[in-house]
Amino acid sequence: MSADHDSQQARAAASEWADILRRGARVASAMMAGASDRVAIGTTPKQTVWRDGKITLSRYEPLADSAPLGPMLILQGLFGRQTVTDLEPDRSLVRRLLAAGTDLWVIDWGNPSRADCCLDFADYALFSLGDALDQVIAETGRPVALMGICQGGVFALCQAALCPERVSGLALAVTPVDFHADLAGPEAQPGLLNTWARNLPPATIEAFLAEHGLVPGALTGALFQSLMPTRNAAKYGSDLLGIADDPAALATFLRMEAWLSDRPDHPAAAARQWLIELYQENRLVRGRFQLDGRRVALSAITCPILNIVAEQDHIVPPPCARALAGHTNSDDYRCLDVPTGHIGVFVSAKAQAIVAPAIADWLAAAVGDAAHGASLFGK
Amino acid sequence: MSAEHSAGTDFVRRWLDAHRAMFASGTAGPIWAQAETIYAAWAKAVEAGYEAHGARHGGPGASPFDPAGWLRPAGAGGMADLLRWLEGPDYADLFAEQRRAIRGTREWLAWLAAAEQMRAVLGQAWLEAFGRFAEALGTEGGPLGWQAIVELWQRLSGDALTALYATPAYLAAQRDLVSAETALRRALREQIETMAALFGLPTRTELDDVHASLHALRREVRGLRAASGPAPLRTGWPRRRERPR
Lengths: 379, 245
Description:
- Chain A is an alpha/beta fold.
- Chain A has 15 helices and 14 strands.
- Chain A has helices at residues 2-34, 93-99, 121-140, 151-162, 192-199, 202-212, 217-226, 231-242, 247-261, 268-280, 318-322, 344-347, 349-352, 355-367, 370-374; strands at residues 46-52, 55-60, 69-75, 86-88, 91-92, 102-108, 144-149, 167-173, 214-215, 266-267, 290-291, 294-295, 305-310, 333-338.
- Chain B is mostly helical.
- Chain B is 74% helix and 0% strand.
- Chain B contains 7 helices and no strands.
């Protein structure tokens, strides 16, 4: 009985190991193939229409017969690439918005280097974004709805507060506004990134930025990964083996890796404001954040707002994003809770069916032609 | 403070009593008993002092009793004064290079100590995770497949590390590591820039100055343009293609 039992167990273990090896071989083979163009991301066709140094403004080619919605400009922050909104054809916020008839534009901040160490929030959120918006307005003759992602959402808020005539509406996704909202209130749960940012004395941050001249993208990536410490072990281990027999899932995995590895460096001057003035001193909601000597007053924002919050966001705690509700004077403020994490808002299969339709409906109803937009998604 | 003080005076009183007893009786038994009492009082005094000191010095390296702080002691007093005394005063550029080299080595050692401190803090969490993992394996009924084992380990170690990341010990180690890394970079850069200056090579500092000047100039040009009226739309960039219908 026990010899048979042992023998059965040995056979089961051998079979299991053989399966692991087979899956591993498949993954390795997919990765070899992934070195070619199979992992290309951000492939939706667009034309670059303006360039200033490393910064480019592009307009997507329409996918619908007409483009009654918008114009809308997508802007990421400096910690990640805007290509997350266009990971692959089936997981593309960009494609869905274009299909809904949005006149869609995107700004790419390029790859800042140490030569850009002095660029601060005024350069990005006020000047360069303002120049790009002027180009869009000149082409379309209309103010522009901004879709700001994470730090890009803060850029969008600054632009809308200081130059409201350029902005027709704000769609903000996973955007921190009250950087201390994780500490108080009914949802209080200290965010790890917030805790770490508050942990370093300002003098230490200043010294670090002075020595490095930027926050290396590799360091940012490592920090984000360490927020979920064993996630990588799972991702590159059991998760990867689990999708070994699914070529489409493997391709998506590799595209996500391509996006993660394309993390730009963050200029020191802007990082100083981000870490000290916003994360530590929380100046944005306290009305003490200044760009080029001008105070950013969130109360000056009156345009329609769609605030997209990721319910399981481990980078921007949801209370920090939801806090926007009480700080603007917009008569049309909407909040959309998405049951995903920070990046899942743009790439998860679940979010594909929620986020793009919500933005298009909001564009149609709040910003543009309500009657036309309401019919876009069969409502 | 008062507990520490009373423990200290208690220790002295017992020590004197022991000597009195030794001379009065001439026997070893009572003296040994007194010695044990003295040791207990001394240990209590040291512990009270250490706790009081720990409350005053938060992070690793802040306390003179912590080796992590011996190389880069914070503030004044204790090891900071001792190091200043050992190194002596700065006389213009006398031995400046040697001092810079010593500082570089010291910062390197301090960085190693800070990295070791971080490893120790992380190691503690890994040990706890492993303990919980072993315990969970023991309580699980029947053999687990490889996926279940991996998932169990990931969950337990993830929980242990996530809990650790918000603890004072981890945060202190993190502060110290960032600070030590920055100080090491600065010390090395200063050495390298001194060598570069000898051969007339441009330095990082000079390049940063150039970038700062360029940035200030660009801001000024933008301000002048804005003052002279609305900026015309830029031309010469590729215009978008006709939109396909």
